[in-house]
């Protein structure tokens, strides 16, 4: 059922808080995890653990995106992902340097939910803002990505340098829980979705991949972005390793 534009617009500040806090926690994670593993292990272990955090999203992204388009419980899924991220951050504090396999599993578990942190939140916007406000709200949403990408590593590095990487991991858990609380305050209408006929999840994933490969502008932009972010991501391992 349609809702009035003013009511929908009032949910946008809550959305920006929830999305911003969660994305900040997510962008703090690579440097914080690396610093923690370097303190308790070695560069090889740090690199493997960080890979376990980042690589699962390559496979989970298309599936999670197709599922979110069909579920009536987007808000619940986003909230659950934030709880997982907080628990993984605290779990790494407990097991890093003590067990070589548990941190890998924890990192992979959190990494599989990265698509929820990014596109998953953005998928809520059409249900929170009226069409005439959507371009402006989308711009603010994009700003949370940039702000988190800049502030997250800076906070992780500051916490790790002054108070230790353990404090950075606790901060990640705190921001994730703040995002969880913010998500819980979003209007319940964001959990509703149209019950139209759609192809199955696997068919949607196949169609999406086909469209990606057959659309040169999309393929080129994605490839360029991937290479750029890949180079930036490598700094999370190389810089702390050089400085130790």
From TrEMBL:
<feature type="transmembrane region" description="Helical">
    <location>
        <begin position="101"/>
        <end position="125"/>
    </location>
</feature>
<dbReference type="Pfam" id="PF07690">
    <property type="entry name" value="MFS_1"/>
</dbReference>
<keyword id="KW-1003">Cell membrane</keyword>
<dbReference type="InterPro" id="IPR036259">
    <property type="entry name" value="MFS_trans_sf"/>
</dbReference>
<keyword id="KW-0812">Transmembrane</keyword>
<dbReference type="GO" id="GO:0022857">
    <property type="term" value="F:transmembrane transporter activity"/>
</dbReference>
<feature type="transmembrane region" description="Helical">
    <location>
        <begin position="137"/>
        <end position="162"/>
    </location>
</feature>
<dbReference type="InterPro" id="IPR011701">
    <property type="entry name" value="MFS"/>
</dbReference>
<dbReference type="GO" id="GO:0005886">
    <property type="term" value="C:plasma membrane"/>
</dbReference>
<keyword id="KW-0472">Membrane</keyword>
<feature type="transmembrane region" description="Helical">
    <location>
        <begin position="218"/>
        <end position="239"/>
    </location>
</feature>
<feature type="transmembrane region" description="Helical">
    <location>
        <begin position="76"/>
        <end position="95"/>
    </location>
</feature>
<feature type="transmembrane region" description="Helical">
    <location>
        <begin position="44"/>
        <end position="64"/>
    </location>
</feature>
<feature type="transmembrane region" description="Helical">
    <location>
        <begin position="168"/>
        <end position="188"/>
    </location>
</feature>
<keyword id="KW-1133">Transmembrane helix</keyword>
<protein>
    <recommendedName>
        <fullName>MFS transporter</fullName>
    </recommendedName>
</protein>
